[in-house]
C-alpha cells in the first residue's frame, strides 16, 4: 500500500508547537506522514516540527506557493530573482522539516493572470528559475513536485500536458510533477489518460474531493483515479488536501467561504476511504 499523508492546511497554514496534539492524533489514525505549508518565517519552528514528527514515527512533505512579487514567469529579472530566493527559502524550511518533497504551484504566482494564454517564453523563464532552484534543492535531496491548477487559480499549467511541457523546460531530475484529483476533476477529460501523460515524472499525489471536503463524499470519479494510479504503478504518497475556514486568513486567500467537512471527519473517514480504494485497485 502507498504511504498515506494528511495536509494540515485543513486546520492551519502555520507551523508551530500548537500542532503537536494534531500530529499525535493523525498518527493514531494510521497516517504515515504529514504535509505542511511553507509560509511561517521562523526556521526554528520547522526544526522543532521536524524533530517532533520524526520522534513519533511520521514522515513529512511540504507545499508552497508564490506571490506576484516573486513570479518565475515575470518579464522582470528582479522579480524572477526574488522567486528563486523564495524557493530557496522554502527549501531551507523543508529541509528543517526533514521533508524530501516540496509540492505545489510554485512555477508561477498563484491567482495572478495576464488576460491571455501562457506563452512559450513564460515556460522557458519558469524553467530557468526552477532549474536553478533545483540545483539548490539537490544538496538537501529534495524533489520539487509541481502542481497544475484549475483555470480559476492559474493560467500557466492547468493540465498534465502543460505540466509536462514545463518540466521539460526545467530540465532537472529534481523537478517532477504532482497530480491533484480536485484540479484534474475540473481540467482533464479523463483521469486515466492524464495519469499516463504525467507518469514518467509523477512524484506526488493529492487526494482531494471536488468540494475540498472528505474524499469519497463528493463526485470525483475515484474508481477511475485509483485505477489510473494502479495502471501506471504509482508508488508515492497519497496525501489528503482539504480546506476549512479554521484559519481565516488562509481561507480568505484561497476563496474558501464555507465549511466543507469537519477536519477530523476528513482525516478519519478520508484515511479509511484511501485504504479501501487502495486495496480495491491494488495500490
What features would you describe in this structure?
The protein has 283 residues and is an alpha/beta fold. The chain has a single domain, classed as TIM Barrel. Helix content is 43%, strand content 13%. The chain is built from 10 helices and 8 strands. Strands 1-2-3-4-5-6-7-8 form an 8-stranded parallel barrel, surrounded by 7 helices. Strand 5, helix 5 and strand 6 (175-180) form a beta-alpha-beta unit. Helix 4 (120-138) packs across helix 5 (160-170). The chain starts with a strand and ends with a helix.
Helix and strand topology:
Layout: E1 4-7, H1 20-29, E2 33-37, H2 43-55, E3 59-63, H3 77-96, E4 101-104, H4 120-138, E5 143-147, H5 160-170, E6 175-180, H6 181-187, H7 191-198, E7 202-207, H8 222-231, E8 238-240, H9 248-253, H10 263-281
Parallel strand pairs: 1-2, 1-8, 2-3, 3-4, 4-5, 5-6, 6-7, 7-8
List the keywords.
283 residues, alpha/beta, TIM Barrel, eight-stranded parallel β-barrel, 13% strand, globular, Xyl_isomerase-like_sf, Sugar phosphate isomerase/epimerase
